[in-house]
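testing teh design pipeline on a random one, pls ignore if ur not involved
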């Protein structure tokens, strides 16, 4: 007989005296703890293969996680679902020492972080949520291109059938939120039509996301763009993009404000400030 079953059987032998009620409370707590441990053991059964420094973990329900063994202490995975692939490329050293946390409650989902990215503080990804108002999502993917740098960023969606893409060579400051969801639906009161459908969110390659910026659902930011400190970017922020669509403005816009708007086009930027900028020449 399992420990949980033994505890449950002992509950029936106690009367409702004060002592009995106290015992029951303690035993119920123990039951909950042991049930959690049993579930955890079931959900974390895995095989681990290391091949030339690359770790492949295979969990039940066709969940496969790959990463480099040298980066293991920087990674955290909380996955509940099926048909899930997570691939973390080789992290750049020595600068990045932050934590990467991938939290998935989904099926048919992929998360990819390509090579040579570095995380200073944290990169946290939430796909789906085990909650009565949310639930398991499906066919939702996150792709972060190579050579990206992250100070501190949270990436979130609670919706199926949508993708989040961050292009290669992008630079993300601290306190950034990429929020491809509204969390809760709202409808036309007459027709019942859903008004806040979630689609893809895309950040082009070589974008610079300033500190404490928020990027909301369904946004498509052109390559080479700069998002100002504290900006809140929604789909309406890019409504005047056609006005910056001449060849010289095809990329390299600056978005600033709350709500953000395009304040300039035709710009370029560099992450390397050692060539004159730092010296303020």
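output:
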């Amino acid at each position: 007989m399992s420990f949980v079953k033994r505890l449950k059987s002992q509950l029936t032998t106690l009367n409702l005296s004060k002592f009995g009620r106290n015992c029951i409370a303690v035993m119920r707590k123990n039951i909950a703890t042991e049930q959690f441990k049993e579930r955890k053991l079931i959900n974390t059964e895995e095989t681990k293969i290391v091949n030339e420094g690359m770790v492949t973990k295979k969990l039940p329900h066709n969940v496969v996680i790959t990463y480099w063994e040298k980066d293991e202490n920087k990674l955290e995975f909380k996955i509940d679902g099926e048909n899930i692939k997570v691939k973390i490329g080789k992290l750049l050293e020595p600068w990045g020492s932050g934590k990467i946390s991938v939290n998935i409650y989904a099926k048919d989902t992929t998360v990819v972080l390509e090579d040579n990215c570095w995380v200073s503080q944290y990169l946290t990804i939430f796909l789906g949520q085990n909650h009565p108002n949310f639930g398991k999502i499906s066919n939702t993917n996150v792709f972060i291109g190579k050579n990206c740098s992250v100070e501190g960023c949270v990436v979130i969606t609670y919706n199926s059938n949508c993708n989040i893409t961050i292009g290669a060579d992008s630079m993300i400051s601290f306190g950034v939120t990429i929020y491809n969801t509204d969390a809760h639906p709202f409808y036309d009161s007459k027709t019942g039509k859903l008004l806040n459908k979630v689609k893809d969110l895309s950040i082009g390659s070589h974008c610079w996301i300033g500190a404490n910026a928020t990027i909301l659902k369904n946004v498509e930011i052109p390559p080479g763009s700069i998002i100002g400190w504290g900006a809140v970017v929604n789909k309406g922020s890019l409504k005047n993009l056609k006005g910056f669509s001449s060849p010289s403005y095809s990329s390299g816009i600056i978005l600033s404000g709350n709500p953000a708007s395009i304040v300039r086009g035709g710009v370029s930027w560099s992450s390397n400030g050692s060539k004159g900028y730092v010296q303020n020449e």
